[in-house]
């Protein structure tokens, strides 16, 4: 009888509190809280406005999601591997550094989409050039493949288009399309020509006109090995100053006088020595008359006229008197 009363008491207590949790329930409290959180997230996902482009679905935890992740302007940007500050594509929410590096970046300084190489010493090779025989001869600089417009990127503002004359004869329209796709991108634009036929004069003449019109520099190679050396050299000398190819002028007076006066057509180094020994200074040479200059050995009427004409002509050229190209 007591057992029955006890059972009735428990039953009555349970019916008196219909919202109370059953202490003997097999579901742990952590699972119950997880179920409630999932239901809350599902209701929040259903309330997303139709214009929301993100549409993350019901697995989004709104309690820990930060709104600034949606703003690309606040996203972290890894440093460019080229060593120069260029605008890069901003990191997307959840995107890893490797995924960002795999994407191209918009380089405003050259007006072209530039592939971010893994290293600043790397030559970027277009994926379309994988079967090019010269690739196997690039041994002195590292290279990697990328989806780029030119055939090779050898610097931040330098690129190379490769063309063999044999292929150009079969597909003469090919190079025009490549140049059009390149647009105004890059500062140094090299057209690397592989001369692989005997009668190449006419083709090079035509390509020279195309290069001059579109701001390209022509470099000719007679083998794949030589073409690969050029590409390696372009990359190796990317950050070198031009001092090694500049004319070296000594700091003494005679060297400077020689450099100045030999700019006049028909005046050679022997003439400079003669002028310097007779008149002593550049000012005295400029003040000398035609009769005085005509008495010097090696100075005829024509040479004297050119020298005096160089001294008398104005430094500023009148644009109206320029020759029309």
Automatic annotation (TrEMBL):
Residue ranges annotated for the ERCC1-like central domain, each copy included: 122-235
Biased composition (Acidic residues): 49-58
Pfam families the UniProt entry points to: Rad10
Biological processes per GO annotation: double-strand break repair; mitotic recombination; nucleotide-excision repair; UV-damage excision repair
GO cellular component annotations of the record: ERCC4-ERCC1 complex; nucleotide-excision repair factor 1 complex
Source superkingdom: Eukaryota
Biased composition (Low complexity): 1-15
InterPro entries from the UniProt entry: ERCC1-like_central_dom (IPR047260), ERCC1/RAD10/SWI10 (IPR004579), Restrct_endonuc-II-like (IPR011335), RuvA_2-like (IPR010994)
Molecular-function GO terms, alphabetical: damaged DNA binding; endonuclease activity; single-stranded DNA binding
Chain segments carrying region Disordered: 1-58
Record carries keyword DNA repair: yes
Presence of the UniProt keyword Nuclease in the record: yes
Family: Belongs to the ERCC1/RAD10/SWI10 family.
Name of the protein in question: DNA excision repair protein ERCC-1
Native species: Lunasporangiospora selenospora
């Amino acid at each position: 009888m007591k057992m029955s009363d006890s059972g009735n008491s428990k039953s009555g207590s349970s019916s008196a509190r219909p919202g109370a949790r059953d202490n003997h329930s097999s579901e742990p409290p952590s699972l119950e809280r997880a179920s409630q959180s999932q239901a809350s997230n599902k209701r929040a996902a259903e309330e997303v406005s139709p214009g929301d482009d993100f549409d993350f679905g019901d697995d989004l935890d709104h309690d820990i999601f930060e709104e600034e992740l949606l703003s690309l302007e606040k996203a972290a940007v890894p440093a460019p591997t080229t060593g120069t500050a260029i605008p890069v594509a901003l990191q997307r929410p959840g995107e890893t550094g490797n995924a960002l590096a795999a994407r191209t970046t918009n380089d405003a300084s050259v007006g072209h989409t530039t592939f971010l190489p893994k290293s600043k010493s790397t030559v970027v090779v277009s994926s379309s050039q994988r079967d090019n025989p010269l690739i196997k001869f690039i041994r002195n600089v590292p290279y990697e493949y990328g989806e780029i417009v030119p055939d090779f990127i050898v610097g931040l503002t330098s690129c190379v288009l490769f063309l063999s004359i044999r292929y150009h004869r079969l597909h003469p329209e090919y190079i025009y399309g490549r140049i059009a796709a390149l647009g105004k991108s890059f500062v140094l634009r090299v057209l690397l020509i592989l001369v692989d036929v005997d009668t190449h004069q006419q083709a090079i003449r035509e390509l020279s006109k195309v290069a001059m019109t579109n701001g390209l520099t022509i470099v000719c190679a007679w083998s794949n090995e030589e073409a690969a050396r050029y590409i390696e050299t372009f990359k190796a000398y990317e950050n070198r100053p031009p001092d090694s190819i500049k004319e070296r002028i000594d700091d003494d007076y005679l060297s400077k006088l020689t450099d100045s006066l030999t700019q006049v057509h028909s005046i050679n180094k022997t003439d400079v020595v003669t002028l310097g020994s007779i008149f002593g200074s550049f000012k005295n040479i400029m003040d000398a008359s035609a009769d005085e200059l005509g008495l010097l050995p090696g100075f005829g009427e024509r040479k004297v006229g050119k020298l005096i004409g160089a001294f008398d002509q104005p430094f500023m050229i009148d644009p109206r008197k320029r020759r029309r190209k």
